[in-house]
From TrEMBL:
Residues 25-193 form the Radical SAM core domain. InterPro entries: MJ0683-like, rSAM, rSAM_sf. The keyword Calcium does not apply. It comes from Pyrobaculum neutrophilum (strain DSM 2338 / JCM 9278 / NBRC 100436 / V24Sta) (Thermoproteus neutrophilus). This is Radical SAM domain protein. The keyword Iron applies. Keywords: Iron, Iron-sulfur, Metal-binding. One of its GO terms (molecular function) is catalytic activity.
């Protein structure tokens, strides 16, 4: 594993995702190295080619962000939109932490998404700025099964505990069940376990289907390289919605959310 520090000229970029106005990615590459990760197909250079093995750290990010936060109109920032902001080097670099503080102070809303309980290190900040933050914890499957496709990410049990703790502390937390990969986490039982967690902590469940991308797809074990067609998804979606209804969990298909927001203004203000 290799970590390199780089310098950047920009911190915030316009987000291509309809739910965010800005994207903020403190790291290029992700040491969690999930096999299905789409980011490996979109990341240029060594971090994309050797996914999970090479990381670039934006060493001057906070200095640039401070300047931009003072100049730009506040909006919703996705932290991060490409890779995990709380992957292991965050313990040393504290870029996610610094970003939350700078952005919240400047009136931005920060939407964090992670697979790591390291986010609890920043509980003091998340509590202090609870009106300006929400935290998504990604769980594709409970138990050891997740280790197969998420070999270097924290265990789902640790993620579930972190989500519960955040909710207990009054932080707005959501569970991200995605991607749902055919043959891996699309059974009723697999889905029910994640839905149960979301319901038990009062978190919304946001879910999404797997969309094959060349590099990621080639890394999946052959058993999971199945046809992820419309018919398959209609059935899985029905199961998720049913289970959510039964458990009393609010759930949201990310694709429907995108469709609904397509006509809304995409710029702050
Ligand atoms: S944690 Fe997220 S960004 Fe990192 S490898 Fe896994 S899916 Fe990709």
């Amino acid at each position: 594993m290799k970590i390199y520090e780089i310098r950047v000229r920009r911190a915030l970029t316009p987000s291509g995702l309809p739910e965010y106005h800005y994207a903020l990615n403190p790291y290029v590459g992700c040491l969690h190295g999930c096999l299905y990760c789409y980011a490996q197909d979109y990341t240029r250079g060594p971090p994309g080619a050797a996914w999970g093995q090479i990381l670039y750290v934006k060493a001057n990010l906070l200095e640039v962000l401070r300047r931009e936060a003072a100049q730009l109109k506040p909006g919703v920032v996705g932290l991060s939109t490409v890779t995990d902001p709380y992957q292991p080097p965050e313990a040393k670099y504290r870029l996610a932490r610094g970003s939350i503080e700078i952005l919240a102070e400047a009136g931005f809303h920060i939407s964090v998404q992670t697979k790591s309980p390291l986010v609890l290190r920043d509980l003091d900040l998340l509590r202090r700025y609870r009106e300006s933050v929400d935290v998504g914890i990604t769980i594709t499957a409970m138990g050891d099964k997740a280790l197969e496709l998420e070999p270097a990410a924290p265990h789902p049990t640790a993620r579930a505990r972190a989500a519960a703790r955040l909710a207990e502390e009054g932080v707005k937390v959501w569970i991200y069940l995605g991607p749902v990969v055919p043959g891996y986490n699309d059974s009723r039982q697999d889905i029910a376990e994640v839905v149960k967690l979301a319901a038990s902590i009062g978190a919304e469940l946001i879910y999404d289907r797997y969309r094959p991308k060349p590099r990621a797809h080639a890394r999946l074990p052959p058993a999971y390289r199945q046809e992820a067609g419309r018919q398959w998804w209609t059935q899985v979606k029905k199961t998720i919605e049913e289970l959510c209804r039964e458990a009393g969990a609010r759930c949201l298909d990310v694709e429907e959310e995108w469709r609904a927001r397509r006509d809304l203004p995409q710029k702050p203000g």
